[in-house]
Amino acid sequence: MPKLAFENIPATNQSGFPPQYTDVLKGRWYRRMAKAGGLTDFGVTHVRLEPGAWSSQRHWHPDGDELVMMTEGEAILVDNDGEHSMAAGDFAAFPKNDGNGHCLINRGTVPCSFIVIGPTKPWPVHFPDIDVHHFADGIKRHKDGSEFAPINTR
């Protein structure tokens, strides 16, 4: 049966970022909805941000489109053009290879939630503000191509 119970999909705040870039992600909780449903052509993730949390470091995907839709509360979309308020019902689209680095930040006092639809394999990923690049091999590297030390992702 294709119907799934949202509460049965485990939420995690696991991060693959090197430790120096994870402080802003501690209040980010996500559930991989597409994976739970056995979908493989695209990803669908429900994300909940506690006050002060970021969705990710600012990033963009050269090989996959991404769409974000707010479902609850408010967040600030930070992209190449600045900051934009996002409320429930608002959405933002990022065509693959557009170079528009983006993330959502909850600067409010209550949690917010949104849905992300995008590639199932996010590599390569560009992070314009930090010295991290996810290459096509899935290994996190510095922008000069050197590898980070192995990361314990909990």
Account of the 3D structure:
The chain is mostly beta strands and 154 residues long. The protein has one domain: Jelly Rolls (Sandwich). It has one helix at 33-36, and strands spanning 28-32, 43-49, 66-72, 74-79, 82-87, 91-94, 103-105, 112-118, 125-126, 133-134, 140-141. The chain has a five-stranded antiparallel beta sheet. Strands 5-4-7 form a three-stranded antiparallel beta sheet, with no helix packed on it. A hairpin with a 2-residue loop joins strand 4 (74-79) and strand 5 (82-87). The longest helix is centred in the first third of the chain and has 4 residues, at 33-36.
The whole-number mean of residue pLDDT values reads 90
Radius of gyration: 15 Å
Largest sheet: 5 strands, antiparallel
Strand content: 25-35%
Strand order across the largest sheet: 1-2-8-3-6
Q: Remind me, CATH topology?
A: Jelly Rolls
Q: State the low-pLDDT regions, or none.
A: none
Judging by the overall fold, what is the CATH architecture? Answer: Sandwich
First CA to last CA: what distance?
32 Å
Overall 3D form: globular
Count of discrete structural domains: 1
CATH class call: Mainly Beta
Structural class by secondary-structure content: mainly beta
CATH superfamily: Jelly Rolls
Summarize the amount of helix as a percent range: under 10%
Number of distinct beta strands: 11
Element order, helices and strands? Answer: EHEEEEEEEEEE
DSSP summary: helix tally: 1
